[in-house]
Amino acid sequence: MGIASPEETQIVQEHLAQFPELKEELHGIEMSLENYALSQSVPPDPSVKEKLFNELFSGEDKKKEVNEAPVVSMTKKYPIPLFYKSVAAAVFILLIGSIVLNYTYFEKFHAAQDALSEAQQKLNTQERSNEAMSHDLDVVTDKYAMPVVLNGTPHAPDALAKIFWMKNTGQVYIDPTNLPKVPPGKQYQLWGIVDGKPVSGGMIETTKGVYHIQKMKSFGKVDAFAITLEKAGGSPTPTMDQMIVSAKM
Known about the structure:
Blueprint: H1 6-18, H2 20-40, H3 47-56, H4 60-67, H5 82-141, E1 145-152, E2 160-166, E3 172-175, E4 186-194, E5 197-203, E6 214-216, E7 224-231, E8 243-248
Antiparallel strand pairs: 1-2, 1-8, 2-3, 3-6, 4-5, 4-7, 7-8
């Protein structure tokens, strides 16, 4: 409508190109203003035509007009009041601002959601870690728990593990915290020497390098404990040259 400055016009054109919904809104505003102008228009009085012809023609020209009236353009123009121009401009500017703000807050909302999801994952991990530590503490402080230290062998002199053998139930727990890192494709396996024969006490879980006290198979009467490094999934018999730690009862 010609009421915006060149700078404002440029901003409007840039946003029209960026946001298709603005084009739809602008079209709606234009149609509303046109409908308003049509609804407020007043048809001219019939006498206007005669007065107009009197001004344009006289004498023979008037007779000629009676026989053959000239074509006179009567195109109507509907001026739009300045007030409505200002209102339309204000609405349009507010609409642009609203869309820009909505887009900005939409991006911030997604960023906040991602941060919240990450924080929730960290909280869940921390809760699981706390539960594991609580379980470890219950085992260590149990009045029936008899700790047995498994020292390193020549294959791994710095290795160390600890067994907690429950005297009242015969249950066995192991703390593998100080065992060396497991090579790919390998897994630690606990053994109990019962009546001179090795009996598997199960595989020791070291997934993702997280070591916690784990419940193993119960042996009852045990002469000694040992841990060997076996292929993933375990072995029916211990690989003696891969014995990492051991201890006699």
